[in-house]
Amino acid sequence: MTRSRPLRIALFGATSGMGRAVARQLATRGDQVFVLGIDEGELSRSVADLGVHGGGVGAGYALCDLAAPNTFGPALAAAIAALGGLDVVVVTAAIFATQEQLERDAALTERLLTLDFTNTILFCEEAKKCLLAAGGGTLCVFSSVAGERGRKPVAIYGAAKAGLSRYLEALDHKHHGEGLRIVTVKPGFVKTAMTAGLKAPPFAGEPDEVAAQVVRAIDRGTPVIYAPIAWRPIMAVIRRLPRFVMRRVGF
Length: 251
Prior knowledge:
Layout: E1 8-12, H1 17-28, E2 32-37, H2 40-54, E3 60-63, H3 72-83, E4 88-91, H4 99-104, H5 106-133, E5 137-142, H6 155-175, E6 180-187, H7 207-220, E7 224-227, H8 231-240, H9 243-248
Parallel strand pairs: 1-2, 1-4, 2-3, 4-5, 5-6, 6-7
Helix pairs in contact: 1-2, 1-7, 3-5, 5-6
């Protein structure tokens, strides 16, 4: 994407973790970032924070709840009104739970599958319509390396992310000719509140370094990125392991 002017960006999930890191980097370089989320206090603080990083006043916020699809359209409409248009939509909002937690709690499993798969796709559908109506733009969505292969420790979470990744791939195939650029971010282990309490692998990523990768991918329209980049060769190996090996290993 050529940056002849600051980008107008709606970011769903900017109040914590990777969303906050990406939002700060975008604001620091002068882009206008409108934040979406469920907590009005956190959203207000995020706008003030982005104003500091961007050297001015933050673009604003709207309430948007991943559990309430009826909030998606109005939130995006508020972003378009505040920004005077929309060039990029970034989606980092999601929940995580371990396989053990999900197996113990059917309600949590249903919630995770609904939010991370069904409702994320419903939000992307709304965002897609907004971007296509304006002649195109970039939809950048966080999926996960957990969806690359069926793996014991992430059977349920990985299933949601696998479905999301396939949906995003299909969007790219269907709408690329209309000017819609899809960026699917597949993070591995990143040190955020979402992974707090989990044992970090030697190649765990830091939010700022991953955010820098994401911003570059948005500018270039890169269809798929692995973050940190070390996950690309790691997952290339895992995808090729035979089934009998996957049955024996614990990762």
